[in-house]
Amino acid sequence: MATDLSSRVVLVTGASGIAAAGARLFAEMGASVFIVSRTEEKCVRLADEITSAGGSCGWARADLTIEEQSAEGVRSCHEKFGRIDGLFAVAGGSGRRLGDGPLHEMSLSGWEGTFELNGLPAFLASRDVIRVMLDQSPDDHGSRGSIVLVSSVLAQHPAPGYFATHAYAAVKGAEIALTRTLAAYYAKDGIRVNAIASGLVETPMAQRAADDPQIVAYAARKQPLADGLLQADDLAGAGAFFLGTGSRMVTGQTLAVDGGWAVSESSP
Question: What pTM did the predictor assign?
């Protein structure tokens, strides 16, 4: 199941945390990487880091919740490299500041805002990249491309005591459903779609959890392989597998990279 990313072009949505870890690894493995994020400073810093290490990287600033900007970001990648072989779709975030929480306490704006923040980037980037992939020739393995959506373990294995963010869980569940239906429809075109169900990862989004000793202790029980929070690099390898030749016969799957969350008890 060796993974080869040489001569591939991978578009990454997001420029920090899991997205940044993926971009670095894909470049190290020979891919040409293109970063799309709404924060120009993060794009520039990450792209400079990758190119300084000898990798190939471009970037574009875009708010991926806005249709025109998403399309322009994808178009910029295609214009720079001539094709798009992979999408690593990470962009999104916690909806707590928007009002996400237990359903009976949630406002309509909290629900809609969380779905917009997470669901629109997954939808728009996937749609625009698939349009490019359908129009390009298959590679030597008969593939037109591979899409990886980064979901969350909370979609299928909730933790009500510490993560009662019902809109976030729902939209991450929607991404898993989207993965399956896209995989089924586009398999005939040589386009694969898979998802990663991420555990609790030490990223800027998870700062609240990382600063809470009770949640850290809970994570150590729920993610015994990590003995706490996972690192972003733990997710990057799974992304590389799905994007590379080693998974060329794999589609429609959700891989839990969760340190054991889904199979571990929550009690001490």
Answer: 0.95
